[in-house]
Amino acid sequence: MKHPAVKNSALLSRLLLSLLLTGSVLLAGCASRPTAVWSNPALPEHWEAEGKAAIKTQSRGGNIYFTWTQKGEDYRIIVRGPLGLGRAELNGRPGEVRLQADNLKQEVSASSLEDLLEMTTKRRAPVSHALHWIKAEPGSAKAEIERGPDGKLTRIKEDGWTIDYLEWSEEAPNLPRKLTLEGPEGKATVIIGLWRLTPEALGEPPVADSAP
In the chain, what are the domains? Predict the structure, then answer.
């Protein structure tokens, strides 16, 4: 039986695919708890990123804008203009992923983003590694890695995908500003215009001084 909220599976499929290609889907890994080869120490437990992506698939293309907020294992991703779907919001925590979109009458939920993708499009994609790719990390020991003279990643090849790191953030030099993701589902050029990495940048109250 189809989910009652999924009446236009083609549009939802494009939304999920656009999330996958931009790395917004990348947060699906929080539910399945993948283990990276190594972690990028540039990211604290709480952070936020804003960016845009040019998406190109075999049948469609377009631009989307996203805001990705991470707090420990919980995350919220807001996507605007995702290939004709307007605004969409993805909220997740271990064991639960919820999707709301302008063109959906009801919220769609699943235990993981991989399950959500399969439930609505009848397709399964290895999205867990992408959690690490957007942060300039390989997703597993099977990844092929290339580095530049400065030691920074220039390319990751993993599970049929190639991720090229073209530019690095000036404010956060160990985090990417521009990267491309290309694989069986299509290609995306992602530009992360802003990384918020401090409590002040995130608008969080300062920690009280507990010293006597």
Answer: 9-196 (2.50.20.10)
